[in-house]
Amino acid sequence: MNIVTLTLNPAVDKSVKVDGLLPENKLICHSINRQAGGGGINISRVLKRLSVNSTCVFTMGGDNGKFLNQELINSNIKTLPVKTQSWTRENLSVVDTLTNLQYRFGMPGSKLTEKEKTIIINTVSKQLLVGDMLVLSGSLAEDISTNFYAEIIRSLATKKIKIVLDTSGKALTDALKENVFLIKPNQRELAQLAGKEFLDSQEQEEFAKSLVKAGRVNYVVVSLGSRGALIVCKDGINYQTAPSVEVKSTIGAGDSMLAGIIYGILENESQQNILKWGVACGTAATMQEGTDLAQLDNINAAFKIINR
Question: What angle do CA 220, 222, 228 make, to 5 degrees?
């Protein structure tokens, strides 16, 4: 099965440390790291560490976009960048070494012209054959219509592509009007999808089951944060707790979890083991500093703990 990831709102993720975060002072940054970031890009990075190849389609603008593309090439990931007039954004995370607290600053997304949107749809379509998998992951820039994911899905309807979707808000609601294979909301995003502020555990289960029963989606994976995750499909419901580890960063934990879920599906694992791989990868991401995501040794270590 060919796998294509699409990142419409990528970023160069910069992480730094400061020895005391104080207002108005000139702060000296150290331990500076820059990496390619964004939902689909992160998923391609983790899949590569699991020995799964994917084609990474993303928007690329200016020097930031060129840097991002080269970082992926250096990681032996196949890239298909779509050049844009707007520069690729840069996000910043700062860890205060005195408190070990992490501060995350997200920049606005890049604008896309109508021509660029058409190129994106055509680029994705050319890479996919019947039965392949497309991962649509990440936020949409503010100027992009919330139905753009849905538009992409509709353009592929005849190919029966397995759509894996990880977004939120109206973009998620609009996309679920089309055929989707898997979604991975967190608890807040699932509640919003249900039109509520909060869902208790039973309500989460019932609403997720209703999505599957209605044929809107095959799998619903709900991230429960530090408590792990649950998975719902026609075969039932499974929970998986997350192992207790020292958390160094939460950046990319959700993307790493989704990469693990995809890996489990590709390996034809049981529903429970699919979830185990997802939680292991999500946990492994928190064991790394900055934007390093889930490393293979930590994935294997977390998976081993889960299986005890």
Answer: 135
Q: Is the pLDDT at 180 greater than 90, yes or no? A: yes
CATH code that applies to domain 3-306: 3.40.1190.20
pTM recorded for the entire structure: 0.95
Quick one: pLDDT band at residue 217, thresholds 50, 70, 90? very high
Could you report the per-residue pLDDT of 4-30, keeping only the tens digit for each?
Answer: 999 999 999 999 999 999 999 999 999
* Dihedral, 68, 70, 74, 79 alpha carbons, nearest 10: 80
Give domain limits for the chain.
3-306
CA distance 4 to 6: 7
Res. 168: pLDDT tops 90: yes
Give catalytic status of residue 292 as yes or no.
Answer: no
Tokens for 97, please give them: 């070494």
What are the beta bridge partners of residue 144? none
Contacts of 225 (CB under 8 A, 6+ apart): 186, 187
The residues, any chain, with a CB within 8 Å of residue 294's CB and separated by 6 or more, are: 46, 49, 252, 256, 259, 260, 281, 282, 284, 285, 288
**Alpha helix locations (H) across the chain?**
39-49, 62-74, 114-127, 148-155, 169-175, 187-193, 201-213, 253-266, 271-286, 296-306
**Active-site choice (235, 255, 292, 297):** 255
Q: pLDDT grade, residue 141 (50/70/90)?
A: confident
Using the 8-state DSSP alphabet, how is residue 308 labeled? -
**How many Cβ atoms are within 10 Å of 41's Cβ, its own excluded?**
29
What is the secondary structure of 149-215 as a DSSP string? HHHHHHHTGGGT-EEEEE--HHHHHHHTTS-EEEE--BHHHHHHHTTSS---HHHHHHHHHHHHHTT
pLDDT of residue 205: 97
Would you call 245 exposed, middle or buried from its count of C-beta atoms within 10 A (0-12, 13-18, 19+)? middle
Tokens of 5: 């990831």
